[in-house]
Amino acid sequence: MSTQLTIIKIGGNVIDNPDALKRFLTAFAGLPGDKILIHGGGKVATQVAEKLGVQTTMVDGRRITDRPMLDVVTMVYGGLVNKQLVAQLQALGVNAIGLTGADAGTVLARKRPVKEIDYGFVGDVVEVDSGQILYFLRQGLTPVYAPLTYDEAGNILNTNADTMASTIAVDMAGRATVSLVYCFEKKGVLANPDDDDSVIGQLSPELYAEHKAAGTINKGMIPKLDNAFNALDKGVSRVVICHADEVAAAVTGAGAGTTLRLPTPA
Ligand SMILES: Nc1ncnc2c1ncn2[C@@H]1O[C@H](COP(=O)(O)OP(=O)(O)O)[C@@H](O)[C@H]1O
Ligand SMILES: CC(=O)N[C@@H](CCC(=O)OP(=O)(O)O)C(=O)O
């Protein structure tokens, strides 16, 4: 494989919008070189759970995953969403292979220990088999990961898709120059959540802390940015957060969205 690898994470609001998803997948198919897609799908899981009478509870951006909810997310992420994405990518000429972390033993996790909160079957990533993922890439395949992992006891576990993307990117960074792009439905990290054009071009940890304290960066953006800064800190070359329509520009470095910066040296 080439030494450049692009890892893209696509969020649940885009997955839930067929037109936006089609545009994104078409752009993804056109990206040059080796690539990996990691998808969320939280919104679809919540909708399906409701239809099945399973109640959704989120704490700090993580889904409380009891046994009935585990069945829902396994069906939705590992089945419905993953296979629809793979089929659409195949039609666009991408030889996609749909995976969970359990497949080929690529993303091993541990059930999150119960402290104040019992998250149930939520997995914290322990180990990524980047050699195996590299093998898929060398076969000309494009891995498409669902946000599911497994543990040594044989459980399938629910893992936040932003975390899945960041941990895979960090491990692959030992084998390639990795760019990680988080795509969602806004133009980037916004300085004012009510103004869709107030994109922060470059975000340092210091500026992030200021916006977090002021409450202008909140909710799902906090775990996303924690994961994104963690990736940059641990060897991923470039991390960008952008609109799904701007994925191609983000990959070429054309200035789309928000680019993360390491701390300013003292
Ligand atoms: N400053 C901010 N800029 C952009 N989005 C923000 C900001 N603060 C909070 N958010 C929220 O974070 C959400 C993205 O997080 P999340 O829903 O977890 O995304 P994803 O669907 O990609 O997993 C946005 O939809 C937005 O509502
Ligand atoms: C443990 C946990 O919270 N897992 C997430 C996995 C899906 C996800 O992250 O989807 P988005 O990227 O669309 O938010 C969940 O079930 O919501």
Quick description:
With 266 residues, this protein is of the alpha/beta class. Helix content is 38%, strand content 23%. It has a single domain, classed as 3-Layer(aba) Sandwich (Carbamate kinase), CATH 3.40.1160.
Note down, in words, how this protein is organized.
Keywords: Amino-acid biosynthesis, Arginine biosynthesis, ATP-binding, Cytoplasm, Kinase, Nucleotide-binding, Transferase. Pfam families: AA_kinase. GO terms for molecular function: acetylglutamate kinase activity; ATP binding. One of its GO terms (cellular component) is cytoplasm. This is Acetylglutamate kinase. This protein is α/β, with parallel strands linked by helices and 266 residues long. It has one domain: Acetylglutamate kinase-like (Carbamate kinase). 38% of the residues lie in helices and 23% in strands. It is built from nine helices and 14 strands. The chain has an eight-stranded mixed beta sheet with strand order 5-8-2-1-11-13-14-12, with helices on both faces. Strands 3-4 form a two-stranded antiparallel ribbon. Strands 6-7 form a two-stranded antiparallel sheet. Helix 6 runs parallel beside helix 8. It is globular and about 45 Å long. The termini are far apart. The model has no long low-confidence stretch (mean pLDDT 96). Bound molecules: adenosine-5'-diphosphate and N-acetyl-L-glutamyl 5-phosphate. The site of adenosine-5'-diphosphate has 18 residues, from helix 1 and helix 8.
